[in-house]
Every structure is written in C-alpha cells, then in structure tokens.
Amino acid sequence: MSGTMLLVAFIAAINPFRSRGSLPETPTGNARVAPVVIGGTLVVGSVAALAWWSGPVLRALQITPETFKIAVGFVAVLAAGYAFVVAVPTAEPELPGWRAGIWPVWYPRLLGPEVIAMALTAGASNGVAASTGAAAVAVAGLVALVPVRGPVPRRLVVWLGRILSAALVVVGIWLTIDGIRDV
Amino acid sequence: MLGTAVVRVAVVPAEVCPPVTAAEVRRSIDAAAGWLERGVQPDGTYLYGYHRDTGVVQAGYNEVRHAGIVMVLYQAYAATGSAEALVAADAGLDRALGQLFDHGDWVAWAPPGEMTSGGNGLIVAGLVFRRQATGDHRYDDLMRGIGRFLIAMQFSDGSVSSDWRDGPTPDHSLYSTGETAWGLALMGQEFPGEGWGEAAVRTIDYMVTDRDRAEGRFSRLPDHWAAHALADLRPDLLTDARIDYARRLAGYFSIRLRFESQRLGTGINLWVRWYPGTPAGFGTAGEGMGALRHLAVDDQRLADLVGGMDDRVVCTAALMVDRQITPAEAASGPHPMLEEGAWFYRGYSQMDDQQHTITSLLEALPVLEAREAGR
Q1: Spatial distance between the Cα atoms of A65 and B319, rounded to a whole number of angstroms
Q2: Residues 64-123 of A with CB under 8 A from B
Q3: pLDDT for residue B197
Q4: What residue spans of chain B are helical by DSSP H?
Q5: Are the beta carbons of B247 and B226 closer than 8 angstroms?
Q6: Residues A84-102: pLDDT tens digits?
Q7: Which chain A residues touch B311 with a CB distance below 8 Å?
Q8: Mean pLDDT of the residues in chain B
Q9: What gap in Å lies between CA A142 and CA A37, rounded to an integer?
Q10: How many angstroms separate the CA of residue A71 from the nearest CA in chain B?
C-alpha cells in the first residue's frame, strides 16, 4: 500500500473525530489530557508490536499476507458501517485517574478490531516504522481534538467522524481489491 | 469473537501447502505422463476421460485438447527425456499430420469437421517443443505453413477467428485467441527475423486492451495461454502495457491458487469453499503463474513478484502431488491403470486434467531445485 493510503487507512481506522466523542472529560468539557496521551501512546505501541509480529502471526494462521489483506478489507468495511451508524461510541465506565488511558481509551476506544487487523496487514506490507508512524499521526490528531467543547464543535466532530467512516469503507474495498490482485 | 470466527472460516480459511520435493514432483510428472501414454489409441487419439466410480471410459473427443496433449507430452519429453513421452506425442502428431489441409498460402491441421485456430496454435507449440528437444528440423516448413494459417485467422484489430469455414468465421472462443498468440510467439523464438513475434503482439495487444469487452465478458479472463504468449515473446517486444497485463494476470492466477489452497473438501470448509477444484482449472492457474514467473525472473519490471510467484507455483505443485492417485489408491478401483497417476474431480478425470497439471508441475521444478540447492 502506498504511504498516502497507509496514512488514510490508519486515520480512518483510529478515527480521531469519532473517538473524541467518548473520551474521559473534565467538568468543563475538555478531554482529559493524561488518559488521551496514555491511551494514544499505548495504541501506537500496540500497532508497532502487531506490525512487528505480523509475519509470525500470519504464518501461525496459515494465511498469506495477500489473502489476509482481503479479510482486513471485510473487517474494515464492517467496522466502518457500524461507526457510520453509531457515530458516537457508547460511553464506558472509566478507571480512575490516569488509568482511564488504559480503559476505556486504549481499549476498547482506540484499539478496535479494524486497527488490529490494519496493523497486521500494514506490518506485513509496509513494515513496522511506516505503520507505527501512520498510527502516530492519527493519535496526534486525537490529541489535537482534546480542547474541543461546546455543542456546535462537538457536532462538527461527529460529522467529520462519519466522513472518516466513509473513508474507511473505501479503504476496505481498496484493500479487498488489492488483496485479490496481489501475487 | 463471533465476527473473528466468521471471517476465519468464511473469508480466510488456512492456506494449506504440504511440503514437497523436486524428486516428488518429477515422479508425479512421470506418473501423469504415464496415464497419457497408456491412453494412446491405435488411431493416434488419446484416452479422453474416465469415471472411476463407475469404471466407465468417457466417450467423445475434443480435438483442441488432442493438440494440448501432444504439446504437453513434448514438454514432458523436453524436461524429463522420457522416450515414452516422445513416442506418445509423436503418435498424436502423426494423426494430425494425416489430417492436414493445404490451402496453398498456408497449411492447417483439419481434423474432421473443424479447422480451429486454437488447435493449430497448440500443434505449433508442440512442434516448437519437439524441435527444441530433438533438434529435428523436418517440420520447419509445416510450422511456417501453420503459422501463416494463424495469421490468416487474425482480424485487423488483432482478434482471432476460432474456426475456418471457407474463410475465418466471425466467432471467437474462450481460449483460441491466447493459443494463437502463444503459437506465434513461440514461432518468433524459433524463426527470428521472420515477423512471427510482431504477428503475435497484434493479438496480445488485443487481449491487453479490448478482448474482454469486445467479446462480452463481465470480468477479465485469467488466460493462461496469454501468460505463455507473454512469457515466450521476444524481450524487445515487451512494452510497459504488455508487462502491466502480465502483472494483472499474475494477480488473477494468484487469487485462484490461494483460494484452492484453502479447499479441504470436508466439513464446514466444504460449504464455504466447495470441493477442491478441477485439476484442469487449478492446473491452468498454476501453469499461467509459472509462465509469468519466467517472465518476472527475466524482466526487472516484474522482479518484485518473483518471491510470491515462487510460493504459488510450489504450493500448487505440493497440492497436486498430494491429490494425485497413487498406485496403492488405484489398486482398489475397477481399472487401476486408468486411475494411477491421474487427478480426479469428484470421480472424473479428463485428459486435460493431466495436461495442465503436468505443465504446472514442470514450472515448479526449477523453483524447487533452486530452493533445495540453497539458491
């Protein structure tokens, strides 16, 4: 996958606009910085680890990277459809303090099935550094959305999240076609 | 978890490629060629098909497939030096030589009721392999004559008539276009400077640009004959557009081969992947990939595909060696010698099942030998 497609794929999969909708917040409505940074760092680390282990994982599954790409395309389309319909993720109970970065920010908010699958296929085709870099850009986008508050900006973020969900559908279809064409 | 299970079972079942060695592939080729050799009839035809469950030999014949068997037996002889393969190929060729039609400008093989471009393309291919393997040049004039027939079957846009009936009919058939292009490309190898390669590219370019749309197909045809034509085309004729077509073909063959390696034919897998495919169908994808691998090894523009292609042709060989009927398995059947060395699809084997699979195994041999030698 090209560098641009890789970036779009991770931004659409992590979907910072949609994820912003259910981050732990301060009483003023800003997202809490520490959990976002911790959760974001953990998801970038997770992507790096999955990309690093993509070869052994796919070998253990007895799946070629090309065929796995087709499966990732299916997962991406399904996840994108759900994200489009449920534009704001369900609020989860939070662990206290910084631990909220682990639950619910890292998991289940950011490390969804589509991100896991994307990390494995991107690791196999684009390598660890490129995959991690693309995930880091997506997380940086989420961090940039920490100050968003107020009804209009929040609704704008929700609708931008829907656009990214649509982009994930396109990415999923592209991955499926690319997996079919790959040798 | 449920979603993961569904994706695993329905979308990405495990791709199973058993271990295989070059020696096993060689034995498999010999066994399959043996099935064809035992099937030579007194009139020079070959055993067409066999139902192992009922012990019934299939009636009927297909002349284009006859030419395919002649061709693959010469391929097998060239690769293995088997005298039996040469004798069996020559028997089929002798039959064809007795059915020639001399038009004056060209010569064509014309079995009763038909004079096809596809059959003549494959006969020329067989003659090229025979010439290369034996050094016997006695059929050179005949090859040129049939080559001129193939050109006579080409239309100005590069498309190819499937049959001659007082002239080229406007009909096309699924594979005759690629078979014609391949025959001409091989002629270009054997007789450089005579314009055969240039004639081949007219039809290759038709396949690259217009064929599927013009002939009313919804999707691109994964044409193994086109792959052979590209692989055997003179290197200076391999433009970027033709190389791009080769890349697309490799993708079609690859998904077919990967899909096949997911087929177990049992349990839930049977419902999501059905039975292991017809040996002829699987074999065509394998031989197409093998042909393109030759091209990729020689052409830097496809060099990034070589590793994947190697894996696919080896996996194909491994699966086919595994699925071939062994002497022990054949012994329990009503006619063991009509089973041994063959590949069956749901109880039936046809001569082209052996033909395409032998070619795909021949394509895997150099890859396995290189791997075993640590290259």
Answers
A1: 20
A2: 64, 66-68, 70-71, 74-75, 78, 113
A3: 97
A4: 2-6, 22-38, 63-80, 83-97, 117-134, 140-152, 176-190, 196-209, 211-214, 224-231, 240-261, 267-273, 279-298, 306-323, 327-331, 351-372
A5: no
A6: 999 999 889 999 999 999 9
A7: 64
A8: 96
A9: 9
A10: 6
Q: How far is B186 from chain A (nearest CA, A)?
A: 26
The token pair at A7 is 């970036």
Question: Cα(B244)–Cα(A156) distance, rounded to whole angstroms?
Answer: 44
Residues of chain A with pLDDT under 50: none
* Rounded mean pLDDT, B271-289: 95
Please give the share of chain B, as a percent, with pLDDT higher than 70: 100
B4 at A interface, C-beta within 8 A: yes
Q: How many CB atoms lie within 10 A of CB A181?
A: 16
pLDDT digits (tens, 9 = 90+) for A51-65: 999 999 999 999 999
Question: B160 and B180 in contact (C-beta within 8 Å)?
Answer: yes
How many Å lie between the alpha carbon of A25 and the closest alpha carbon of chain B? 30
The answer to whether the Cβ–Cβ distance between B254 and A113 falls below 8 Å is: no
Could B309 and A183 be called an inter-chain contact, meaning their C-beta atoms sit closer than 8 Å? yes
Residue B12 has a pLDDT of: 86
For residue A108, is the peptide bond before it cis, meaning its omega torsion is within 30 degrees of 0?
Answer: yes
Q: What ipTM was estimated for this complex?
A: 0.78
**Residue of A71, A180, A181 lying closest to B12 (CB–CB):** A71
Backbone angles phi, psi at B55, to 5 degrees: 70, 20
Q: Do B11 and A70 touch (CB under 8 A)?
A: yes
Cα–Cα distance for residue pair B296/B291, rounded to 1 Å: 9
Q: What is the pLDDT of residue B2?
A: 78
Mean pLDDT, chain A, rounded, equals: 95
